[in-house]
Design goal:
The chain is of the alpha/beta class. The chain is built from 5 helices and 7 strands. Strand 6 and strand 7 form a beta hairpin. The protein is globular and about 40 Å long.
Length: 164
Amino acid sequence: MPSLPHQSKFHIESLETLSLFADLFSAWLQSGDVVALNGDLGAGKTTLTQQIGRALDLKESVSSPTFVLMNEYRSGRYPIVHVDLYRLGEEKAASLAEELFAVIDEGRALVLVEWACYGSFLEPVLSASIQIDYAENEAEGRLITLSAARPLLPAFADWDGKLP
């Protein structure tokens, strides 16, 4: 994924701190943003997407689009398109590019792409990239690296990862 100029790292200890991260990140997001979500299997990409949906007032349940490739949700502040490139892999992910760019070019939806590492065609349009890694020696801990095309909110710099 490309090197985006604004970067921060966050230690996530629990679902509650992931929820807090999603609240802050969702306040930064705009309709039309494209966000890459990468990390190992089970690292929390779909869980983060669910928390972002909650923060953006989605009424629908967010589920993994691994087998359908793309889910669309319209009940929140703005539409969310949730994509998963895992089953396609790097060789076949480009087959989804035309349909995905039609959504991106429309500019009304937030596009969240799991396994975006397989979609290098997305690099020029990314607003942010999130890498989720397992924290060493922690059963539930995660390390999130957030890279963004525009400056992050000041609250990110002030956030120490603790619940208020």
